[in-house]
């Protein structure tokens, strides 16, 4: 049970003067009840609730001011809990003394009001629920029911979220035995007001009849709960919009640790775990520091959102950084520095979890991981030595140090332990990881420059087993960042954008995992990378390039250029030759090039291919770059990699291959088109030969090269069904839950303003376009696939929405909707969280036939419509469009000519086009100013 609350340093009367309020409410009660009319109890409760609500809101305002002044989240949580205590105390006093007095109470007319759960801990966030237990000696009585109802009605009328239960001591004990949630809530029970003897009886019986002898059961249940919770919230603690309460490394993890420690070690404060030998004094200090930081973030979050918001979303992160006093540094925004601190704290919470788990295992209060206890007994000690080094042992399938001096005796062991774990497929013992973290100072210049240490590290990195897992553990202990200081700079670094779902270090480690899966060939959706991987000459330099490709993030200069410079320093240390070092540096400098060209350039334009060939120069580099690009995109976040991007990379590779090989190609363009058509013929069952021949002839070669097989089959059936129904215009919707999008396919007669009309219709329906695949047929039809952000979680709801959007497109193409007027009303305001510098580039050297216009800016619904309408108004003909979205940034590329089919010439004409498009990008700013 929880100790009585501690007095705060600052006077509590700033928040709530209970003595003055007691007098005020007493006067109010007399005034209402003395009227002697029926129903005055209800009127009194209503007036009490109104007055207390005002006082409660004032108390929150004062608590927020104190939080801003002193910055202590725990203090704020204590104050808010104390405020709630005093309000419940006052309401209880009025209930038992004024509303339902009992001059000579019987033994059953006793009650204790007990705070349980988080409230019992004496800590509350501004939006926390109030969980209370009405504790009775026996069964419920009329008096007890009336008192409990009076208290609850006042709290409810105040607008508070109250969780409540009414139970006898016997009921509490019985239910705690069978329900782990109730057991946990009672573990933190705290008497608010009422019968102390009744509460003491609950405490004594809970310890004797529930807790004793059940530690293993409780620990297993709490750890299982944690696993289930993290599955729901996301297993990685490095997601860029973390859940402060329930996410990995959040407050709930700290609470779980304390519940376990309290249950097993029977302690009341974290500092008592030092005396129990669980934490060192420094680790206990880390626990308190993490707790205070997370409470600060959570309290600020609730105050900012005005509700119980637990997700640290982008639109709140910047304000949080300002409230907490973070400042920008060169290369890092204030919000990125705040989030880096957050993720470092989350990492510390993870370390503390491992420490407590190890301590429990020593006490046998936690099941041995991965092995049944019976098997462990059959192994006797469960330990064996490793033949490679006497400094390490295998303890229940986990690598551990033979003694506490293993790292001090030979600092190389700080690298060797990870090498041996990867080599033998071993997990890591928490004691070894704890000792490694304490021994980081042993990693000095001599160890970093040691040929043997670097050889072992490169073998870890390039392992064909599970390099991602081993590297992540190296990172979590701090060894990776200490061994490679440049990596240490990007540990827990967040990129403040919607494109990357993970911190920089987590992204790099996940990239290695993706590369490892490419090499194993167990993910067919990785496309051409799987086929090329066995053909590369030096897999080692590819792994190094993937690990280092974003290592210079957070610097004032371009991270690709700075990263290449870092690679030139590190690669010789890793044992690479000058030639291989140059290749790694080149890969890092160009790691965004292939993705950018594939997604935003016309791959049927000869100039695009020639320009890319001039960058890659030889086939081996292009292979390496494609594989790196695949691993990079795959590790950005869920749903970012897809078959369309895979197909674009494949097309760019095969289109460029003949150029850089002097005309020779293993698979020339015509052969690839023929192969794609043959595969589709095989897949399309039920079509006669003449119909297939006619259909194949309707698409240009570009379609066959840039459209993946799944979409080719869907398009063929869609077009056939449309024409069998005699329609000139048709739309089709399909949801893609994995990518979080909905695809709309439009088949219609082609005309210059078609894309603008489709984009306008989507905007008029409130739909947000994030990608578009635009193609035309040889018989003058357009086949456009538009990707929209998903609005509903359930497929049924999303399909209905997609049908409404499709209907809007058909009406717009039929001229039944006046798009300019409708879209003008739907232009939203710019998302507050992000700013993107608008940029418009016109280039005549990127294409032999067209002027290429690249537009980059903050994405929003209606943007594509505004851009295409403007191009049309400027008398520009859009030959092809390439629409891409990278989080909050839209990058739209248009290949255009004038009405005579010529490139756009003249500086004045270019300037006019640029000004007009910039006005579209700034339209949302104008809306905000209006």
Furnish the topology, listing elements before pairings:
Elements: H1 18-33, H2 40-70, H3 73-99, E1 112-115, H4 117-120, E2 130-136, H5 142-157, E3 162-168, H6 169-178, H7 180-187, E4 190-194, H8 196-211, H9 215-233, H10 251-265, H11 272-275, H12 281-305, H13 314-323, H14 334-363, H15 373-378, E5 383-386, E6 389-395, E7 398-401, H16 406-409, H17 413-424, E8 427-428, H18 430-438, H19 445-448, H20 451-461, H21 467-477, H22 479-483, H23 485-489, H24 504-520, H25 528-532, H26 539-548, H27 559-573, H28 578-589, H29 593-600, H30 606-616, H31 619-634, H32 643-660, H33 669-683, H34 689-696, H35 701-706, H36 709-724, E9 730-736, E10 741-749, H37 754-764, E11 769-776, E12 781-789, H38 795-813, H39 819-826, E13 839-843, E14 851-858, H40 863-873, E15 877-886, E16 889-897, H41 907-921, H42 923-929
Parallel strand pairs: 2-3, 7-8
Antiparallel strand pairs: 1-2, 1-4, 5-6, 6-7, 9-10, 10-12, 11-12, 13-14, 14-16, 15-16
Helix pairs in contact: 1-2, 1-3, 2-3, 2-5, 3-5, 3-12, 6-7, 6-8, 9-10, 10-14, 12-13, 12-14, 13-14, 17-20, 17-21, 21-24, 24-26, 24-31, 26-28, 27-28, 29-32, 30-32, 31-32, 37-38, 37-39, 37-40, 40-41
Overview features:
930 residues; alpha+beta; Beta Polymerase, domain 2; Four Helix Bundle (Hemerythrin (Met), subunit A); Alpha-Beta Plaits; four-stranded mixed β-sheet; 11% strand; globular; disordered N terminus
């Amino acid at each position: 049970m929880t100790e009585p609350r501690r007095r705060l340093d600052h006077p509590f009367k700033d928040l709530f003067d209970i003595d003055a309020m007691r007098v005020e409410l007493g006067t109010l009660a007399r005034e209402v009840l003395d009227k002697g009319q029926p129903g005055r109890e209800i009127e009194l409760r209503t007036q009490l609730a109104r007055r207390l609500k005002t006082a409660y809101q004032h108390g929150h305002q004062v608590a927020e001011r104190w939080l801003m002044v002193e910055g202590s989240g725990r203090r704020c949580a204590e104050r808010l809990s104390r405020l709630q205590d005093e309000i419940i105390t006052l309401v209880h006093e009025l209930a038992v003394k004024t509303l339902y007095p009992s001059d000579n109470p019987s033994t059953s007319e006793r009650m204790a009001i007990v705070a349980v759960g988080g409230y019992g801990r004496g800590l509350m966030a501004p939006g926390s629920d109030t969980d209370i237990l009405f504790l009775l000696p026996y069964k419920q009585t009329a008096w007890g029911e009336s008192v409990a109802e009076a208290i609850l009605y006042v709290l409810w009328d105040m607008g508070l979220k109250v969780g409540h239960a009414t139970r006898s001591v016997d009921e509490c004990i019985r239910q705690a035995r069978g329900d782990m949630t109730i057991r946990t809530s009672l573990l933190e029970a705290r008497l608010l007001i009422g019968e102390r003897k009744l509460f003491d009886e609950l405490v004594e019986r809970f310890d004797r009849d529930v807790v004793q002898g059940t530690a293993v059961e409780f620990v297993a249940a709490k750890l299982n709960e944690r696993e289930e919770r993290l599955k729901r919230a996301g297993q990685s603690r490095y997601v860029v919009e973390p859940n402060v309460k329930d996410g990995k490394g959040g407050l709930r993890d700290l609470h779980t640790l304390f519940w376990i420690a309290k249950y097993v070690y029977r302690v009341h404060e974290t500092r008592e775990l030092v005396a129990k030998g669980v934490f060192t004094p420094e680790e206990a200090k880390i626990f308190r520091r993490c707790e205070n930081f997370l409470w600060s973030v959570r309290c600020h979050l609730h105050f900012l959102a005005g509700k119980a918001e637990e997700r640290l979303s982008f639109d709140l992160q910047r304000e949080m950084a300002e409230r907490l006093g973070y400042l920008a540094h060169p290369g890092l925004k204030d919000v990125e520095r705040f989030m880096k601190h957050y993720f470092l704290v989350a990492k510390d919470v993870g370390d503390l979890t491992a420490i407590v788990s190890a301590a429990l295992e020593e006490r046998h209060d936690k099941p041995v991981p991965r092995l049944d206890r019976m098997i462990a007994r059959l192994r006797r000690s469960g330990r064996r030595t490793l033949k490679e080094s006497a400094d390490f042992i295998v303890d229940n399938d986990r690598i551990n140090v033979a003694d506490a001096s293993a790292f001090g005796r030979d600092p190389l062991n700080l690298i060797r332990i990870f090498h041996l774990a990867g080599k033998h497929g071993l997990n890591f013992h928490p004691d070894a990881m704890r000792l490694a973290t304490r021994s980081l100072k042993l990693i000095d210049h001599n160890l970093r420059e040691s040929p043997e240490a670097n050889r072992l590290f490169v073998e870890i990195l390039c392992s064909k087993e599970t390099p991602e897992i081993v590297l992540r553990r190296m990172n979590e202990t701090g060894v990776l960042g200490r061994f490679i200081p440049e990596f240490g700079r990007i540990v827990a670094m967040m990129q403040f954008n919607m494109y990357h779902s993970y911190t920089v270090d987590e992204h790099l480690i996940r990239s290695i995992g993706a590369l490892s899966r490419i090499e194993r060939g167990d993910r067919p959706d990785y496309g051409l990378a799987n086929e090329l991987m066995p053909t590369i000459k030096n897999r080692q330099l590819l792994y190094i390039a993937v690990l280092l490709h974003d290592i210079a993030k957070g610097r004032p200069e371009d991270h690709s250029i700075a990263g290449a410079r870092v690679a030139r320093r590190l690669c010789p240390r890793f044992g690479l030759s000058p030639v291989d070092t140059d290749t790694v540096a080149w890969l890092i400098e160009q790691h965004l090039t292939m993705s950018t060209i594939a997604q935003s350039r016309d791959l049927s334009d000869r100039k695009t291919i020639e320009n890319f060939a001039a960058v890659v120069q030889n086939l081996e580099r292009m292979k390496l770059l494609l594989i790196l690009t695949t691993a990079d995109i795959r590790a950005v976040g869920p749903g970012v990699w897809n078959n369309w991007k895979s197909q674009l990379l494949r097309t760019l590779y095969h289109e460029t291959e003949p150029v850089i090989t002097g005309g020779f190609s293993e698979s020339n363009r015509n052969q690839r088109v023929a192969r794609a058509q043959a595969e589709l013929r095989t897949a399309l069952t039920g079509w006669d030969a003449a119909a297939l021949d006619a259909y194949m002839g309707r698409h240009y070669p570009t379609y066959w090269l840039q459209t993946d097989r799944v979409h080719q089959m869907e398009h063929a059936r869609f077009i056939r069904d449309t024409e069998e129904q005699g329609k000139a215009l048709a739309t089709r919707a399909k949801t893609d839950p994995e990518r979080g999008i909905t695809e709309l396919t439009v088949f219609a007669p082609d005309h210059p303003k078609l894309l603008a009309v489709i984009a306008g219709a989507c905007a008029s329906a409130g739909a947000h376009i994030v990608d578009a695949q635009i193609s035309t047929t040889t018989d003058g039809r357009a086949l456009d696939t538009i990707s929209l952000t998903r609005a509903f979680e359930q497929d049924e709801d999303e399909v209905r929405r997609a049908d409404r959007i499709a209907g809007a497109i058909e009406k717009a193409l039929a001229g039944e909707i006046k798009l300019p007027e409708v879209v003008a009303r739907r232009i939203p305001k710019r998302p507050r969280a992000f700013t993107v510098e608008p940029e418009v580039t016109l280039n005549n050297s990127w294409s032999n036939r067209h002027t290429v216009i690249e537009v980059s800016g903050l994405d929003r619904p209606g943007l594509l419509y505004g851009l295409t309408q403007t191009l049309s108004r400027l008398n520009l003909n859009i030959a092809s469009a390439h629409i891409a979205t990278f989080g909050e940034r839209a990058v739209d590329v248009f290949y255009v000519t004038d009405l005579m089919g010529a490139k756009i010439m003249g500086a004045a004409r270019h300037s006019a086009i640029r000004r007009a498009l910039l006005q579209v990008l700034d339209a949302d700013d104008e809306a905000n100013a209006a």
